[in-house]
Amino acid sequence: MSTHGKPRGFTPVHKRTSVRCAAALLSLAVVFSGGTMAANAADSTTLTDIVLGVGSDDSQRNLAWYSTSDTAQVAQVSLASKVVNGVFPATATSFTATGGLTTSGEYNRFVTVTGLKENTAYVYRVGSEGNWSATNTFTTADFDGDFNFLFFGDPQIGSSGNVANDTAGWADTLNVATSTYPDAELLFSAGDQVESATSEPQYEAFLSPNQLRQIPFVATNGNHDVGSKAYEQHFNTPNVDRAAGAGSATGSGGDYWFIHKDVLFMNINSNSRDFTSHIKWMTDVVAAHGAEAKWSMLAFHHSIYSPAVHATDADAVDRRNNLPTTISNLGIDVVLQGHDHAYARSYMIRNGQKADAAEAAGADSVVQGPGGVLYVTANSSSGSKYYALQNKPEFWWLSVQNQEQVRNYTALEVTDDAINIKTLRSQGNATNAVNSLVDQVTVTKAPDTDTQEVQVTVPKADAGEFGWSIDGTNKLVDLGTATESGDHYAAVGTINPIRVTDTRVAGPEWSISAQVSDFTSGDKSFSGKYLGWTPTVVEAGGGAVAGAKVKSGFEGGDGLSASSTLGSAPTGHARGSAKLGAGLDLQIPVDVTDGTYKAVVTLTALS
Ligand SMILES: [Fe+2]
């Protein structure tokens, strides 16, 4: 039997670096405050609604803005380190904008910024020569490793009838959340950004907080957004498929995905109940990109496991009847939702049913077995509207529900082994302070017995001293930092031992073989053939014998990229148990780019 797990494993080695970058960003923000360049008198184009969006992966950012004239425009991006005395660098890279007439009679502009480096501070501006926007800043973090991001329920600016109040609540929640989590890497909306899909004043109010130009924003198409093309004209979403979750002649649509670090994010337009289309799209995305990330998260606006008035809507029931089995089958870990303006966290749900009958309400840690999915429904982040809990006994899915009519936000911290989800009040009330906890839960995966992962760090060519260690306490085998050895880098380690027990009477033969994938680090990779091994019987028993040594393919051959025997026992072997191990030998060409690379070793038992 062989099961191919998603690649897993990274070490949070650069986490402090991203904190330093956040500090750099703050100081730059001071340099550029009020830094709007003087407009050329001949060009009165007004540039508004600038929003920094997430890109297809960590090396990209998507920008969007509105313009009052249909002029040729660009986004200019530069290393922040090139700024001298507040002057925007002449060496900045220009990215030509696309776009056209919007439904409000303005013109939108989209740019995808590419080629970004990790742990780097950037400055950018949009417009044209003589008429530039203010300078904005953003920083990239490591392209791998632990991270956190912030999730916000239905801002729905204008829903209370008072745009200014709703905007103040939204801005305050962003301020509380980003000052509590200064290294947050995404601002993720549950949808219903505005009350009225055609209202440009509401869009301007929604986009007014500066964080939306500094931290990538992830938009979701809600029922209040869909009734105009303005949603898709304002938000430049990556890898969008407008046939899946299609809009209408006058309404927005489309499903999209992106990868951030070790998470594949999918975002579907749940206004469309063309489930066949959504399911095919999600299935295709997971087939094409699921192996590039350890975790996967899905977001859509209309919660299917919520606690308030919308939970019993006919359209919610329809989605609840049609989506959960696919979501389980695709191995999605967490689903982020909104629409019900009340907080809910589900039990782990598999195929539309509680996965583990023994899971206690409000458990602060849950283990995700096969097909288990956690569904989170966010309360309002702006305070523009709240719905009361229904407290219906048939809402079997609710592990935690909360409605105190105070604004919330949710911080998700993703590590190699777990996703921690904390929901906090961004507004105090009589009994609870700002940033007090509404709910928290940690999701971990049940052990997977068929794969383990090998990781190695390739140093920069001029690196001096390195240290490395072997971690045999979990499924990650860390080969540490490779050391230069003549014409190649070398690293060694041992796999986590495999115990084999065979108590069958006839003693039929068995063998365990293994094969390694390519090593990858973001877009970079090198062949798994460079890994070789020397199998050993660590603990004898049951007639087990070690497989043959396989040399690294550095000097020729396929190495462990071809299936190789770790150990076996012949027909008629004694009953018993053995422990198999192997010493790993990695030899990599010196031209491999530096980075922390991972590969998956898939083990297959035959008998
Ligand atoms: Fe909604």
Question: Would you give an account of this structure?
Answer:
The chain has 607 residues and is mainly beta. It has a domain at 451-606: Immunoglobulin-like (Sandwich). The protein is 13% helix and 35% strand. It has 7 helices and 37 strands. The strands form 8 sheets. The chain has a 7-stranded mixed β-sheet with strand order 11-10-9-22-23-24-19, with helices on one face. The chain has a 7-stranded mixed β-sheet with strand order 12-13-14-15-20-16-21, covered by helices on one side. A 6-stranded mixed β-sheet has the order 26-25-37-30-35-34, with no helix packed on it. A hairpin with a 6-residue loop joins strand 1 and strand 2 (61-67). It is globular and about 80 Å long. The model is unreliable at 1-41 and 463-473 (pLDDT under 50). The structure holds fe (ii) ion (FE2).
